[in-house]
Amino acid sequence: MTDATPAVDDSRQRLARLEGIAAQLLDRCRAAGATQAEVSCSEDRGLEVNVRMGEVESIESTRDRGIGVTVYFGQRKGSASTADLREESLAATVAQACAIARHTEDDPASGLADPALMARDLREFDAWHPWDLDAQQAVELALAAEQAGRDADPRISNSDGAGVGSGTTLSVYANSHGFVGAERASHHSLSCALIAGQGDAMQRDGWYSHALAPGDLEPAAAVGRSAARRTVERLDPRPLATGRYPVLFSAEVARSLLGHLLGAVSGGALYRGASFLVDSAGTRLFPDWFSIHERPFLQRGLRSASFDAEGVATREAPLVEAGVLQRYVLGSYSARRLGLETTANAGGVHNLDVAANAGSLEDLVRGMADGLLVTSLMGQGVNTVTGDYSRGAAGFRVENGAIVHPVDGITIAGNLRDMFLAIEAVGRDIDPRSHIRTGSILVGAMTVAGAD
């Protein structure tokens, strides 16, 4: 696909308007007696189309905006929001936030981030690639993906649909420290889901492409063919005996393991005592070759940013180094609750790179010899307090370093502490569709509950 940037791009003017609204609201907050204040303004535009079996199912065009105001009276906090830009609505939003703050209790951890931490080097990271795509063009792309998938294999018996999505976001964050930060980003996707087989033997799978620039999307026909291949590969699953097996998580599901880590080291879970990794900073969680680094300044990175949701300057920093957890993931509030300093992660992490020590997925399959390749996970069976892990899964049986047949209806179980330490390899087959940039991950042994 090729980039198709609109001939007239008014994003700078719209950002300037949002900055003006933010400044006006901060002035209103000061006039109302707030000791500190912060404002978030955003505009979103998008197009979503869905087709199924050659017919259009839905077309949705969206234009949304939001204004959020938070005020502090000492250590009392109040927040209110609106989507109405009329003067009376903006004034009422500030008044409502102030009224809430005056009726709340003091919270010693509340307040803006330290003014010395505000970002000063504000940059863009090649995230703005709007797509001049109308509804008819989007429908044609979705139909092309679906048709390519249906034509790819005679065993494809039905379709669960194909879709195209495109959107842009403009956002401004400003606070009473004098910080004003503006960001603009685009996002585009193309997906297809298919059904193979008949009756009780039917299997469903799919594929999608996601990128900040339309030129980085996979071609529609390639998405459809990938969906078809993945679907027919799942036909005729065989039972798997219950036991202990090496488990290889393909890249698209491997990132969920790192998502559980992030949930456990996030400030909210830690200060509530709702994490199995309380007091774990500085301890070994992974093998000594394993590392994860945060890279907020990647060009065209999915989560690149100069500042976090509080205006704090982001920075490159290890999360895990030589297997040891180096820090938590904190905003200023959770940091104060824990007696620590913010890690510039209010609003989440920015592009995590997981270091690889192995080759392709095929290399990992050959190297594991005998085990299970997991390509799909179901359910939410993860206890963040204990680290206990139990999820439904589907994938492929591996014997003598080769895939021999599909399996489904199984459950894989373990404890995340044990699973992290048992990681034997991370592949170089990075899935580019996530800000958690990891390849396939091989865990040395897990309990697998099969058909028996």
Automatic annotation (TrEMBL):
A Pfam family hit: PmbA_TldD_1st
Domain Metalloprotease TldD/E central: residue ranges: 129-235
GO molecular function list: metallopeptidase activity
InterPro entries: Metalloprtase-TldD/E_C (IPR045569), Metalloprtase-TldD/E_cen_dom (IPR045570), Metalloprtase-TldD/E_N (IPR002510), PmbA (IPR047657), TldD/PmbA_N (IPR035068), TldD/PmbA_sf (IPR036059)
Residue ranges crossing the lipid bilayer per the database entry: none
Residue span, Metalloprotease TldD/E N-terminal domain: 37-101
EC number(s) stated in the UniProt entry for this protein: 3.4.24.-
Top-rank taxon: Bacteria
Domain Metalloprotease TldD/E C-terminal residue range list: 242-450
Keywords annotated in UniProt: Hydrolase, Metalloprotease, Protease
EC class (word): hydrolase
Family listed: Belongs to the peptidase U62 family.
Protein name: Metalloprotease PmbA
Organism: Luteimonas padinae
